[in-house]
Please model this.
Amino acid sequence: MMDNFDDKYKKKNPFSVPEEYFGHLTDQVLERIREEEKPQKVSFVNLLKPYMGLAAIFLLAFLIVQFVVPHFIDSNKMLKKANTEIVANTEEGVAEDLVLDGSFNPTSEEILEYLSTEVSDYDLIYAELY
Model:
């Protein structure tokens, strides 16, 4: 049965090429190449589209951070601003009013002196481990 099928379709080619196809083919290809070589005009808006999108993303992120995020943060967890009063407990149990000064900028010697008086050797060793 397979032999009949092969014999039937081997003799006849089911595909055909239109008349003068290969004669016009080179002209068609050269015409398409010439069309692609023509410089395409780029409008100013198309040139700025990527930058406008980027600016819109930054604007959206800014608006979310400024207006949406503060409504979801608990007021107790927000950072304190400079020059606000904080009540701190001392070792004697007496509360003191502390004023944070935003202009305070200690030198490295003052930091080392503070650490040497306030931090124990065990705390330093523990900090080095982690």
